[in-house]
Every structure is written in C-alpha cells, then in structure tokens.
Design goal:
This protein has about 180 residues and is of the alpha+beta class. Helices cover about 25% and strands about 30% of the residues. It has four helices and ten strands. Strand 2 and strand 3 form a beta hairpin.
Length: about 180
C-alpha cells in the first residue's frame, strides 16, 4: 500500500550530472503536483566582480550550507543532500557535522532527512535514510571506520529510473515512511 501518490509519465534524460537529474526530477514532481522541493543555493561572499560583465570572478563560501534541497512531499517535510562516490567506499568526511546536526533537528520536527548517494562506477543511486547516516557517523565517532562501503547500505533503497523520471526517489521515500509507522 502506498503512503504517498507517485504516478508520473515523463522521459529519461541520459548523460546528465547528479544535480541535473535531481533538478529535472523535482521539476517533474512539481509539474505533477506531487512535491515542491527547491535547491538551496550555497551562500557566497563575492571578492572580485568584473564590473563590465557583472560576473563574480573570485568569491568564498560565506557560511556553511546545511543541505542541498528542502521541500515538502504531500504535506511531509523533506530535506536531502546529494553526494557522489566514484568507488565502493564513501568517506564520511563528505558529510559534515553541521549537516548531521541540521538533519537531526529536521527529523526532530517530524521531517524526513536523507542523502541521495550516487555510485558513479556502478551507475546506481541510493536513498540513505537519516538513521543509516547517523549509524555510520556514530560508528566513526566511536573510533570505527571513517567511511562505509557499498555492501553496507540497504539495497531496498535503490533509486530506480521509473515512471520516466531519472531519479524517482519517491518510491524509496515511501518505503522509508512505511517503515516508520
């Protein structure tokens, strides 16, 4: 039984980056009135600006960003970060303490926090629920591995190319929601 509606009819895009695939997916979700999710821009402080072209030529990050995307899926608040891995081991250095803290607070407000993780060599994307991220993070903090391996993640959360959407993560979100009830 579905906890959320996820019917879509669109075409698959090949040769795109993870961010482009996510942006395309969330655009299609919005057009279908299934979800409203926005990319959160990373705050920067411009140092040099070319006054002729009005382009920033040098800048630095103004403050730490928390997550890449935030929104709502049929009344359910969601936030997620997009990460890529070019092997079978994902270093937890790629998930910062302030991101873990934000996700924990978001979950505390009855939201859903996840990481969408793309294994580029395998051409597979996974939905990592906050509880799994937290487990790996706490294991590292307790002196364990500072990474996790492909074989440690829950393969039930594979994000499929479904309904014509390249990263149809609502199926995995639905699985996550149903497991919480």
């Amino acid at each position: 039984e579905m906890c959320i509606r996820d019917s879509l009819e669109f075409t698959w895009i090949k040769g795109s980056t993870l961010e482009e695939l996510i942006n395309f997916t969330i655009e299609k979700y919005e057009e279908s009135n299934i979800a409203l999710i926005q990319k959160i821009p990373t705050p920067i402080k411009p140092i040099n600006i070319n006054h002729d072209t009005r382009q920033i030529t040098l800048a630095y990050f103004d403050k730490k960003s928390n997550v890449d995307y935030i929104g709502v899926v049929q009344g359910i608040p969601v936030c997620f970060d997009a990460k890529e891995c070019d092997g079978d081991t994902f270093s937890l250095q790629n998930v910062h303490r302030h991101q873990i803290d934000f996700m924990e607070k978001f979950e505390g407000q009855k939201g859903i926090s996840v990481i969408l993780l793309y294994f580029s060599l395998r051409d597979e994307a996974y939905y990592l629920p906050y509880r799994d991220i937290r487990y790996f993070y706490d294991r590292a903090a307790d002196g364990g591995r500072k990474s996790f391996r492909y074989d440690e993640i829950d393969k039930n959360y594979l994000i499929r190319r479904s309904q014509g959407v390249p990263l149809h993560f609502l199926e995995a979100l639905n699985l996550d929601l149903c497991s919480r009830n």
